[in-house]
Design a protein that fits this description.
Blueprint (H helix, E strand, L loop, with lengths): L15 H6 L7 H21 L3 E3 L10 E5 L5 H8 L9 E6 H4 L3 H10 L3 E3 L5 H12 L5 E4 L17 H6 L5 E8 L1 H4 L13 E4 L12 H17 L8
Helix pairs in contact: 2-3
């Protein structure tokens, strides 16, 4: 019988904050445990405090790699999307987070890396490198990539223009792209407010799309970005509250 062998992480000689800042991160059972526990607490709070509801949950039930795209107007958005995923896939889900915001101060680094397993994404510099990281992640079966193609939180609750990077990421790739609309998060926790308010939040999950037949030229990737923005906006409830 082959003996079981534990290989410790290769970054144990680094300072804890440096280990969290780097990407990809080495497996860490303590971090996995904290993330799973935090996920259970956050899901419970969302259900109680924000009466969180998921519509179209079946569109996320797949073992394939996924790119989830959604509107963005609140810090609640990432938590809602992660709460829609099975716990067993939590450590394979990577929300793209602005590196110039979430990976500068220690509290934000801790929250981004430990609680939500965020991928540092360059909004201004390093966009191409960030997209390469995303492509490498999606090459691994079962990966879930969460992207907010607007690039920043909306200050009005309306869906802004999607950056062309999302088109570049999915064009010509045989993968599922799932549009989602998060309704109510703008009222619950808008940009500029320190604390969330007890407002109802709903996540509407659309049907997966595939862009394997599209080319990666500029016209096509811009068209894909526009199509995905329209797909997200079409999921908005008629009596939605943003």
């Amino acid at each position: 019988m082959k003996k079981w062998r534990y290989d410790s992480a290769r970054d144990l000689d680094q300072a804890p904050i440096d280990r969290l800042r780097q990407f990809p991160r080495e497996p860490d059972m303590l971090v996995y445990g904290l993330r799973s526990l935090a996920a259970l607490v956050i899901r419970g709070l969302l259900r109680i405090y924000n009466r969180f509801e998921i519509i179209g949950h079946e569109n996320l039930r797949t073992n394939r790699s996924l790119v989830i795209v959604a509107n963005h107007c609140s810090h609640l958005d990432t938590l809602c999307l992660l709460a829609a995923l099975p716990l067993r896939r939590l450590h394979r889900a990577f929300p793209a987070a602005a590196s110039d915001y979430f990976f500068q101060s220690v509290p934000r680094i801790w929250a981004a890396a430990v609680l939500v397993n965020a991928l540092p994404f360059g909004r201004n510099a390093g966009v191409r490198q960030s997209l390469l990281f995303c492509e490498e992640l999606l090459a691994n079966p079962g990966t879930i990539l969460i992207i907010f193609p607007e690039g920043t939180r909306s200050t009005s609750g309306e869906v802004g223009e999607f950056k062309s990077g999302i088109g570049a990421l999915v064009a010509g790739k045989d993968g599922a792209v799932v549009p989602c609309f998060i309704d109510g998060s703008f009222r619950a926790w808008p940009k500029g407010k320190r604390l969330a308010r007890p407002r109802k939040v709903r996540l509407i999950v659309g049907q997966a799309r595939n862009y394997c037949t599209r080319t990666a030229d500029k016209v096509d990737i811009c068209a894909i970005a526009a199509e995905l923005r329209a797909a997200v906006d079409e999921l908005r409830p008629a009596n939605g509250s943003h």
